[in-house]
Amino acid sequence: MKQIILSLILGIVFVSCKHKIVSTETDEDYPHIFPDYIGVTVPSTLAPLNFDINEDCQSTTVKIYGSKTGEINIIARKKTIQIPAKKWEKLLEKNKGGNLSVVVSVITDNNIERKYKPFSIYVSNYPIDYGIAYRLIAPGYSIYGKMGIYERDLSSFKQKTIFENTQIPYSCVNCHSFNQGNPSYLSMHIRGAHGGTVLKTGNDFELLDTKADGILSAGVYPYWHPSGKYIAYSVNDTEQLFHTVSDKRIEVYDKASDIYVYCPKTNEMLTSPLLKSDEYFETFPAFSPDGKTLFFCSAAKKNMPFKYKDLKYSLCSIGFNPDDGSFGNRIDTLFSSHSCNKSVSFPRPSFDGKYLMFTVSDYGNFSIWHKESDIRLLDLQNNTINELSEINSDDSESYHSWSSNSRWVLFTSRRIDGLYTRVYIAGIDEDGNVSKPFLLPQNNPAQYYDELLFSYNVPEFITKSIDINAVGIEKKVLSKEQRKKIKTIINN
Amino acid sequence: MRICKEISKRNKCLSAGFSLLFGLCIFLFFASLYPNHLFYQEQNQLFLFTAGYLFERTSFPGGVCAYMSSFLLQFYIYSRLGALIISLLLVLLHRINLYTLHKLGVAGIYSAVSIVPSLLYWMLLCDETYLLSILIAQIFAAAFMIIYFNISNTTVRIMYALCTLIILYVLAGGIYWTFGAFAILVEVLYFRQLSKRKCALFFIVSTMLIIALPLISKYILMMPYPLRQLWRGIGYYRYTTAFPSIIFAVWSIVVCFPFLIRYLSKSPQNKSAVSTILIGGVTFIILIYASFDKTKEREMEYDYNLRYNLWNRIIKLSQESSPVNPIEMAIVNLSLAQTGKMGDKMFQYSQNNPEALLPPFSEDFNIAFAIADIYYHLGMVNISQHLTFEGMEAIPDTQKSGRAMKRLAEISLINGKIEIACKYLKLLQHTIFYRVWSRNTLEYIRDNKLSSETEWEKIRTIKPETEFIFSGNNKTVILQSLVNDHPDNRIASEYLIAYALLNKDIYTFTRSLSLMEKWYSNRIPVHYQEALLLAWTLDGNAIDNIPFTISGELTQKFNNFIKTYNQNPDRALLNAFSNTYWHYYYFKAIK
Question: Is the pTM of this model over 0.90?
């Protein structure tokens, strides 16, 4: 009897909840969704592409059909479409190399069923790395509150804390770097009263004071040599200026900069007169995947800050011999700032050696504060430049990183609101064709990104979860123990 | 029997009346003498009704109290509500302690001592760096102690104590050990049911648990806080690295005092309970008076009035008590400029240097918002945005700020950055007291009616157009640029002239004076007349030939000043001229 009554009640509730559709209309446009996942290419192990529909409606129905097999049906009474994780995982796996067709229809407030033009999501055959690591920091000026370095498993929405500055109050953690995505090799700076550079090679870590006598500063922008035997750092004398007109906020510039290569085994800093010229600013070092070339950015010295708009960096390279740590005796210019009147930052070669991605802006090297900054792709085999219209926007695109198989790139962009930097991921095939990028998926994306008062900073692909002894680092940093000093500086 | 009941009823009434009176005193204190401290607390945090905020605030030991504290602090936007909240919480703590004393058999006049913990917390809350969570944590601990008294079964009581230590650590944080100490004292001095061996065992297990909880948090749960913070508690004190020892002293007193009072009340030798309590009461009143920081309250009052553009109230306040620091002076100067009194009144105050007009950037969150507001009213919205953002990031306990978030939204709207303004506005919709404003503003955006907001429209029309790089050393150039871009920017014009005067830059002053003609029709403000007289004679000209309309009285005064100065340039002799520009020019060294 009880079961009958319960069934009756449930039946009444169900019937009363169903909308009486008065008419059905078909919209020739795609639905307005956030994030824009229409036509994106995704890896088969990606977390569900949950999205919000930007329309007032009573309910939303989403049907996702695999081109090979399978489908998912979702009925939502709210604007956020949350795709069941298990079903999504299976659907992606079964449709690898194919595509998903997403059919969205809504029931409007006046009981009209509106069906939108179906859109596709392409499922790539190329695998993607385990996850990404990034710093979350408020996009401020010089003072920072809470910040931290985190990792995100790309197959789920899980974010794991790697290191937060609450562990060492009032400190700044930055410039984390891994060796081709391998987090067993880690460089990370901790700035502040207890500063130092954490260098992890394998299971051990040490705390370095990379500010040796005669060097401008402690190490700043790091890049690992593929052998793991070296790590290149720029050293920078950096300052900030503040704009008073509305379109610009900050100008971050170097008054001087050089490049050094640190050898953890010998505790030596290596450099060349060509990398620490008095006439040029050298910064953003990056080793080629074979380890025999060091890419970097170089600009003719200017009277700073007065000539800040004239400071333009070119993309350059110099030979490097990993056997003895010596440098070549000439600098090659791969992309001249004079030829296109742009300034280069963040050179990042793909790990298959075919391409080099970099950021261009009108001047300077702190591209995140330059609305005009875009990403370019240099084909190292034929020296052609791809302007990457697929991934650039009207707002700033800046930092970027290659996946370990060089088939995915991630980059930061401020395209959503012009201030808070977000991570986008795009596929890239062997021929250099780039697919439409997708915003890093979140369980409740609109709410998450609306409420997040942090920018994603220096996102990097990682091939596995980061294993770091955060407590050990904290203990070492807070101890009065002397940081390991750089032994010698060798000019090769 | 009936008499007993009547006595009991009378005692209850007396007790309730006493608590009411105590609560009223607290309310009047915070509402009348300390309201700006309450506003200060409110503006340095932003409580959001979101899952993310709940998770963030409760993700450390004591997080529940911190969350409750943030929830209640948002009501401080109205000082009377804030005062009511504090008085209710302090009275609640007093009533819990009264119950504890009664349980320990303390009655009569000694019951009055139950306000001691509340008085101690009242004293702490007079310091703006203590957060309400410290009081809430104490109430939690005290409430758990009450339950402990009411468990008659020894085994259940011991189990309850051990479980409560864990629960209290999670809910209230570092105060948890006081419950363990109290439970042991209650067992030893009150219940006396445990054998010596069991009592020792209870002590050892409790101590081990007290030691273990922060270690578990740090090394097993991997909480990203230094171990010492996990011991002492997070969220009680605004500065995360500091933890004043007075907190430990207060906690220890709160644990021990009921037993001390119990001992005193039973001691036959003590015949002068009333006088002892009176002396104690007077001591506490003196302590609270000592904790009452009138200087900070005034500073905060200046800041509050600036936040709400209450220019006349600022001038009135400055007349009651002269500004004593550069920020107060800067706020007064802005108010003078806003009310068109700069040229007539500015040297009636003790101006110290040009920074009293445009204070330098500060990483101190206590003054960053005020400096940001000054630049905002000048039209320099990017600099204001910079300071507001930095001020918010500088809040030591990494909270956000309702005041800052609102200002950032406004500046984004003025700068035409609608997307980012909407982000801040949507966030403010998750609050109680900024919700209506943010909803209305979002409606303005949707209906394209932003220009109907007169203040934003005014600022939009005076913000700089010529790009220049801001630095602390080029303020004359900046002010000149603001005026060049928008000659109607009266505040910038007033500031340019005042800045020249304070810098003793007579050339810039005379060159800029024509800017003021349209606002001071047919007259020259008094201080500008003073400066003109000085400028004219410094060039070696005779006063009679001065080509400006200067009042005869002022000319005579200037002659007297020069005569006295030439006879003996002693500052003391010229104090009668202290409210003139001449006095500033000759006697104030620019810092």
Answer: yes
